[in-house]
Amino acid sequence: MTEAAIEKENKEIAHQYKELLRISYQTLTDEDKKLIRQAFDVAVDAHKDQRRKSGEAYIFHPIAVAKIVAAEIGLDATSIAAALLHDVVEDTPYTLENIEKDFGNTVARIVDGLTKISHLEHDKDVSLQAENFRKMLLTLNDDVRVIIINIADRLHNMQTMDSMRADKQEKIASETLYIYAPLAHRIGLYNIKTELEDLGLKYTEPDVYHDILKKIRESKEEQDKYIAEFSKVIQDSLDKENIDYSIKGRPKSIYSIRRKMKNQNVSFDEVYDKFAVRIIYRTNPENEKFLAWKIYSIVTDHFRPNPTRLRDWISSPKSTGYEALHITVMGPKGRWVEVQIRSERMNEIAEKGYAAHYKYKQGSSQEDGLEEWVNKLQEALESAEVNAVDFVEQFKLNLYSKEIFVFTPQGDLKSLPKGATPLDFAFSIHTEVGLKTRGARVNGKLVPLSTELNSGDQVEVITSDKAKPNSNWLDYATTARARAKIKSSLKEEKKSIAEEGKAILTRKLRAQKIPFNEKTINELVIFFKLKTSLDLFYRVGVGTIDNQKLKDYAASRSNALVSFFKSKIRKPNPVQDIDKDEITAKYDQLVFGKEEEVLDYKLANCCNPIPGDSVFGFVTVSEGIKVHKKDCPNAIQLQSNFAYRIIQAKWKDSSQEEFKAVIKLTGIDNLGLVNDVTKEISNNMNVNIRNINFDSTDGVFTGRITVVVKNNQILKKLMDHLKKINGIDKVSRE
């Protein structure tokens, strides 16, 4: 480079630095400026020999990220310094220890988190990408600013991606739409979310993006004229009321227009609310709410509102902190226009998210606001045993989900994702309440636990010490928190059944004169084609491995030759991990949908799922249902482009399958008989009552009980116990 060019570049770097200080949203003290200056000097020095793909000096990238952090997200000096230093440890000889020495523990911790994220492999398959995302979220434990600076870093990379290879652009853009845009949305950074989505579309579907952009530009003049005409009508009335306000028209983002075109299957011209009008008013805190509704009534005096499209986030703000009134009204020429009404404070919160909260929460420390939010995100991270793809899917659900607001019996307001059920509500109150849920009342009426809640419902959870989760609960719960807690509780229950099974097995082997030792257990595991000893004990506990099967094993054992060959055939290598602590299910059958139907299907060649894998069904045009693994390389693309064709699928395990049976009882009616019968059934840990009907005529009683059991061994045992009850004459199966 020539000296003149270097001189020019240095001038530009100095100018960018001044700009960074000038646009910072937080008020910077002299101490802050000193910290930022020091970080800037270190970054300039560390990156002095580096250039980006586009040819410009590398230092412009950290400065740009710091500017996004300072102005658009509005974070503090510590974050600005960390943003300037975010690539230093990764790309230069400067170490984390140096940063800690020069800038203290907090900056070092944030930079360390950012370095960890950038070290994650990004060119692998979906499950690895999901695992990386999960690791990235776990850095929240260190400091939430890590994630926020990472979003800023991603935004600047997306803004400057033109000089990259097309395949690289598409890869980074897909990941942005899959992970970063929902995350920005959840943090309340709506402007950044919109920009990430638009840029994501620009590189994943360039033709569509440029086509919509061209149409927006072509119709800009006409739109501006329309919005001016619309605003004029309202302005006169607002001026009469002496309200201090400004009106801005704003077109919808390219991505949201594209989404509408896709979802509603319409052309660009048919998307009805392509633009919105935002009224921002200035007021003191006492009149803030009152004025919002006053403006609402002025707007609706002139234009007829669509009653189904009123969104009141002033009375109950979104959990991201967003507050506003949204109404869709019929404007001139019969066009729908969305009107957003916000005070200046609300507008800042909508644009800056949490940073604006701090500014308006004077006196309280910045950390307080973050605390509550971090806790919410960490709930989703609690479940360590969920596999990474499920985790990301769950997390995305909880990120992008629209919210509903429901009331507790005391009248407190709780926010839940759309689609939540009473079970989710129970777990959102407390884990113990969730695990002990027996039923629920919504608006005073008893409802099934799978009922979908609506905004405004009042929900009361009925608990019982006897209640415990069953596997159906996983079909009723939608939030990550509830599902994780249910899964770990079911695991515990299986372990306790396995404990019981171990004791039963010891007795049964003793009766067959077979020693209960490690060798026998290993042989049994292999004989029954299982994987672990825990599986063996569990199956004995639920009665799938019964006396007859154990006799078969004893017979094969006594025939040493058969046994020798069998072990040769069945035992490809020495027993490994036989004591592994898990209950792997034995999968026999693939079922689809919530109803768990058995349908025809083909296994996809791209990922070759095998029984036991987490899978989903994809309805193809010509080949029926194709089954893919959840972490199949094509999964993201299928799930994002053809969500309507995807059906739930899972492998069922015969030992966990449940069956309905009807027991008939007859006997002499006496006091407390019904009580004895129900007590006997409920003491049986593997039996659930579905239906019960007793009838007594002239001292003789008949009863029909529908029970749900895992197999006929358990049913036989139950019937034997019922026969022993005083007064019962006959017990039979219908």
From TrEMBL:
Keywords: Transferase
InterPro entries: ACT-like_dom_sf, ACT_dom, Beta-grasp_dom_sf, HD/PDEase_dom, NT_sf, RelA/Spo_fam, RelA_SpoT, TGS
Residue ranges of every copy of the TGS domain listed in the record: 402-463
Keyword field contains Transferase: yes
SUPFAM superfamilies, alphabetized: ACT-like (SSF55021), HD-domain/PDEase-like (SSF109604), Nucleotidyltransferase (SSF81301), TGS-like (SSF81271)
CDD domains with a match to the protein in the record: ACT_RelA-SpoT, HDc, NT_Rel-Spo_like, TGS_RSH
Taxonomy, superkingdom: Bacteria
Enzyme Commission number(s) of this protein: 2.7.6.5
Signal peptide stretch: none
Keyword Transferase carried by entry: yes
Gene Ontology molecular function terms on file: GTP diphosphokinase activity
PROSITE patterns found in the cross-reference section: TGS
Top enzyme category: transferase
Matching PANTHER family: GTP PYROPHOSPHOKINASE (PTHR21262:SF31), GUANOSINE-3',5'-BIS DIPHOSPHATE 3'-PYROPHOSPHOHYDROLASE (PTHR21262)
Family recorded in the similarity comment: Belongs to the relA/spoT family.
The protein's role, per its UniProt record: In eubacteria ppGpp (guanosine 3'-diphosphate 5'-diphosphate) is a mediator of the stringent response that coordinates a variety of cellular activities in response to changes in nutritional abundance.
UniProt xrefs under NCBIfam families: spoT_relA (TIGR00691)
Name of the protein this chain belongs to: RelA/SpoT family protein
